[in-house]
Predict the structure of Germin-like protein.
Amino acid sequence: MSSSMAFPPLILLLILLSPSPSLSSDPDPLQDFGIADLQSASSINGFPCKAAPNVTSEDFFFSGLARGGNTNNTFGSSVVQGNVLSFPGLNTLGISMNRVDIAPGGINPPHLHPRATESGVVVRGKLLVGMITSGNVFYSKNLTEGEMFVIPRGLVHFQMNVGNESALILTAFNSHLPGAVVIPFTLFGSRPSVPDEVLTKAFQVDKSVVDGIKSNFGG
Ligand code: GLV
Ligand code: MN
């Protein structure tokens, strides 16, 4: 039997067009490393690599997660990102980490990462960690020191400090640049702003409610 009989053209086309499971996170690197040259004028999927003779030990170390950011803000939380933009040594390696500090009662607000699955470990404190699936099922659990969680790629999630001391989480991603879509800012703080008619219709509320929320997020 000829191969075109075994795989009729339509099936062959579907196989070729269907996404490969190996592409569900950043692609594998083609060399040991490629320290990102963030100043490069050329743009590719990722960043061009620094010339090898210019690579130093410093390119493989990052102290940015040693200290937390300021949690004295509306949400009472701070996220310090250790991704390819702050730590160019991660370029093409398909991983990155964040440090999340949350004051008592504070929240890392609902958000999603379009390019990565997230895992995290509670280093200090007590947190309610929750996520919502694409089928609108809410999963959550109170976690304490040493406990871990996972958030599948693209799902909306949050962490809330439900203890009396400041909480610290370290999170890890299977992308060098996971991206973060923070729901309140995305919908109510974008520039230009999402038209009121869209938001009043989507949330089934009056314009005054939309204006009130927009004013909280600079929209
Ligand atoms: C926590 O959810 C984080 O994105 O670091
Ligand atoms: Mn997250």
